[in-house]
Amino acid sequence: IDCYNECLKASAQRQDLKKQGELLTAIGLNYVKLNRYKEAIVVQERAIEIYKELGNSHEEGLGLADLADPNAFVGNLKAAISFGRQAVELLKEKYRDESLRIQESIADWEKR
Description:
Layout: H1 2-13, H2 17-33, H3 37-54, H4 57-73, H5 77-91, H6 96-111
Helix pairs in contact: 1-2, 2-3, 3-4, 4-5, 5-6
């Protein structure tokens, strides 16, 4: 995470939004691995903002899926389901397999 943060600073100085989004996503995923879900949520929200700004709906969809998971882990199932549904909408046409995986997660969350 420290290395990613250093790279994030450099990409911010270069105003490289694409790289910033990628790095924030990587940081968020690493926070999830460390069970630091609240930090993952904050970082992933920023990554999604960048993907929206860039008009990258694929990365935005994947980011929303990445945001759904830590919300589910902290018990915020309503948010997890909402983010998951948004991800499915963005991914369903071109990224069917990923969309189906997210739909399965949503179904699990709805059962809780």
